Amino acid sequence: MADQFDVIVIGAGPGGYVCAIRAAQLGMKVACVEKRATLGGTCLNVGCIPSKALLQSSENYHELLHGFARHGVSAENVSFDLGKMMGHKDEVVGANTKGVEFLFKKNKVTWLKGAASFKSANTIVVDGKEYGARHIVIATGSESVPLPGVEVDETQIVTSTGAIALESVPKHLVVIGGGYIGLELGSVWRRLGAEVTVVEFLDRLVPTMDGEVATAFQKTLGKLGMKFKLGTKVTGAAKTAKGVTLTLEPAKGGAAETLEADVVLVAIGRRAHTEGLGLDAVGVATDERGRVKTNGHYATSVPGIYAIGDVIAGPMLAHKAEEEGVALAELLAGQAGHVNYGAIPGVVYTWPEVASVGKTEEELKAEGVAYKVGKFPFTANGRARAMGDTDGFVKLLSDKTTDKLLGAHIIGPDAGTIIAELVLAIEFGASAEDVARTSHAHPSLNEAVKEAALAVDGRALHI
Ligand code: FAD
Ligand code: NAI
């Protein structure tokens, strides 16, 4: 007889582990299966957390080298120790993954170690042993999309996993894909001294970002010394004694050229990971992109089987996966779990950071929505001036008739933290005027948000 649980979650990433903890909090007997040696999924092991540790370390070095002088602070013989930087990153990862293990124990979630596959709609097999549950949740996440002709070896041609563990700073790093991963990790290695060239298929960076913000973003990354080849595709890679020779072509067709690299980072997106689960055997339907199909309540095509996180449709973000994990656990407990997909922020943790929530101007135009725009630059914000960090602006979009906030886009210092008040505003259905009437501490970066909200009706005070 198989061990029985109320809920078995497959995958202990931000979607899975949070779902398991919430279900346990609600009184259910829960197991979570994870095949990795540590909990926390892509995000804690090889994604969000290690990349942010390296972004912080490289930013510290870069500031000491180029930023502090404007404050009259100087240092001699500025250097860095890559081994120690990587050691710090590994410590941070270890503390976070062990933290999840502690939370499992605290909440009495059983960790089933190994890879799960379905035997039936309510039975899985892990390491030859069967486990049964009333509800089974697929939270198996995503993996890097491969690029034909550019074979990953994780040393010379790497995905993000290899790019957060390089043993030395490459002389020339070529990044294929100008999205979240390429720009974050490209800026890490640029700050540490690599020449960085980003090859992007489209004629702009981060296609999901507001166009005006993306243009400003490319300019700030250009100031850092990153180079861009937009509207260009990579058609092949050949390893040489010195590194890798890439063959490039204009995306619209034209003459081929070559580009020499020491290391190549392939970052052209991620795709749902369902390999080895045996979805076909139980009849769980997937869509044209291999993502598990779900209804509005995370139920798959098979009763009793659910799915959340990167393995289903929607933005591939840790906090989106977490929200879904909580909502599903609450639904399984008979409560009213819900995720507001209109209020999921997205942040690129470069410096300056780029943060957004809600609709972009391009989306509003495409949907034929009449809107107002309010903008305020950080050059006119006292705190940003004091920091010596005045690149960027806040841009708010509100409904032309009702003034309801529809989108918020920020490029600037700490944009990822500043955006939180606008996520809350959108969650609560606030108008731009509500934000404008809210007292903002002085002198703070968030005053730029208030000013942008005032600017929606042409009454900014400080510009
Ligand atoms: P995952 O975190 O991918 O976890 C799935 C887990 O399931 C894995 O541990 C896997 O081993 C396990 N698994 C798979 N199949 C099986 C099986 N059959 N049996 C047992 N276990 C299985 N998002 C952000 O919001 N902010 C960021 O700053 C950010 N930075 C990122 C940086 C990088 C370099 C990368 C690659 C991603 C980043 N992301 C970021 C995205 C974020 O990591 C994902 O959105 C998030 O991890 C998705 O969570 P998940 O629970 O759906 O899946
Ligand atoms: P991405 O979707 O963000 O960007 C991929 C880029 O590659 C796009 O600009 C796309 O046009 C381009 N591209 C696609 N095919 C190409 C080709 N053949 N040649 C050249 N360019 C090509 O994907 P990325 O950067 O791999 O990241 C995956 C996901 O991980 C992100 O979308 C995001 O959801 C998540 N992530 C989130 C982070 C955060 O929240 N800060 C950080 C890192 C990743």
From TrEMBL:
PROSITE patterns: PYRIDINE_REDOX_1 (PS00076)
Cofactor or coenzyme needed: FAD
Cysteine disulfide links: 43-48
Active site feature: 442
InterPro entries to which the protein is assigned, alphabetical: Class-I_Pyr_Nuc-Dis_Oxidored (IPR050151), FAD/NAD-bd_sf (IPR036188), FAD/NAD-binding_dom (IPR023753), FAD/NAD-linked_Rdtase_dimer_sf (IPR016156), Lipoamide_DH (IPR006258), Pyr_nuc-diS_OxRdtase (IPR001100), Pyr_nucl-diS_OxRdtase_dimer (IPR004099), Pyr_OxRdtase_I_AS (IPR012999)
A single GO cellular-component term on record: cytoplasm
Pfam families: Pyr_redox_2, Pyr_redox_dim
Annotated catalysed reactions: N(6)-[(R)-dihydrolipoyl]-L-lysyl-[protein] + NAD(+) = N(6)-[(R)-lipoyl]-L-lysyl-[protein] + NADH + H(+)
Domain Pyridine nucleotide-disulphide oxidoreductase dimerisation: 344-453
Any single biological process term in GO: 2-oxoglutarate metabolic process
Additional note from the record: The active site is a redox-active disulfide bond.
Family label: Belongs to the class-I pyridine nucleotide-disulfide oxidoreductase family.
Protein name: Dihydrolipoyl dehydrogenase
Organism for this UniProt entry: Acidiphilium cryptum (strain JF-5)
